[in-house]
Amino acid sequence: MPSPARFAFLVHPLAPFHRRVVGVRQADLRGSLGLSYDSLEIGELCTFGMGGALVGHIVTVPWLPSELLEDQQGAVNAMVEAVGSLDGVRAVGLGSLLAVVGGRGETLAQHVDVPVTTGAAATAWAAAGNAVAAASALGVERVAVLGVGGAVGEAVARLLQQAGLEVVAGGRGRGPKRRAEGLGIPLLSPEEAVRGQKVVVGAATSGGGLSPNALEQGTVLLDVALPSTLSPGPLPKGVRVLAGEAMELPDAWQRGFWGWLYHLISGYGPSQIFACLAEPLVMVATARDRPFAQGRSVLAEDLSDFAEGASSLGLKPRLAVGWRRVEI
Amino acid sequence: MPNPQDSEIFEPVQSAFAEALGLDDDEVEYDSRIIEDLGAESLDLLDIVFRLERAFDIRIPRGGIESAVAEAMDEGETLEQHGVLTPEGLRRLQAAMPEIPAEDFQEGLKVSEIPLLFRVATFCRLVCELLEAKESGEEVSA
Question: Which domains are present in chain A?
């Protein structure tokens, strides 16, 4: 029987609580009690399998967000060490801020022999798929996309156009204007872009830049921004904020206890995954040796390849609020 | 201290912005506002900072200019009230950011709006300060 194709997905603790869990996983008493993190090491948290042919290793780089932002070069060095600790993986995916610090995967890729992919293509694919589903359910043919200046926002807009929807682009500045022009649409301010729209994709990387009051009643916001697209405040009546990057848990997904626990504490919930994890998976499943996304853009050809690979594996976007699937 | 407008400072800064934002170099001007004019978002700024740190072999401190200004204020002075800069806070901020036109420091400016003031020139000035501090072994607050 051939050995399974392997990929790695690098993650980091989002909060001190997560790092305590890493301490428990590494049987480090002081780390698990939050007394000391010095002894926590780069190491495997869990593995996932899919149909016996694919194995994913979830590897933690035990740095908190503040530490990653403070020392990006150090973070890259830690990621290089993490990749170096793995044997036989054919792709490396990056989770959360690891996909951002150090030049969005580019610097890491210069130091390792394995292709490095950031998750931007998968995130765009899932968000676009969810937006198409929401638009269909609500009977609208137009979707507002905020953050078209970024890799994910631009890719979402392109996918929505390919799906036959009209896209209203929201953003500010020269870069976003140029990318909107490349899509053949004008750039509006975020407030103007969402006016009158029932489906909005929030993909601006700054987040928190849009007042909830700017949204129409009953709008579905598919949010992939971190922090959230909306500034704090009460939502207008009927507005729903969905996890834009949510995907159904693949049928053949296999996970042990630590994998199950990872699903819970990472925010996936018991029956879904976030799209970025799927990107290195699709790479190894399709024997691809180039990343789907790296740096600041996602090429149309790579986006198309990801979509084809994801569909062939039966991967599906999922309309969800938190852990829950929702109907629209 | 090197001049922020000198080509050995401005050109690498210009390239860092252009590469991080997917723009041509000549679209990044010394006086460009990084958010309103160039469309930079917070994650872009991370990328820009990383590129500048590598280009100049410096460490750009985190914490925001407001922290640095607050630390420099005299006893009894406050930087902001309810998220809005006090007149003294505004004056201190203006002094700390001489590259920003005076008319941008409007009464009622919120702390959360400070990044809207940033220009490419702000990063050129910061790089110069950090290079000088590196020479003399001092620490600089952003």
Answer: 5-119+247-316 (no CATH), 121-246 (3.40.50.720)
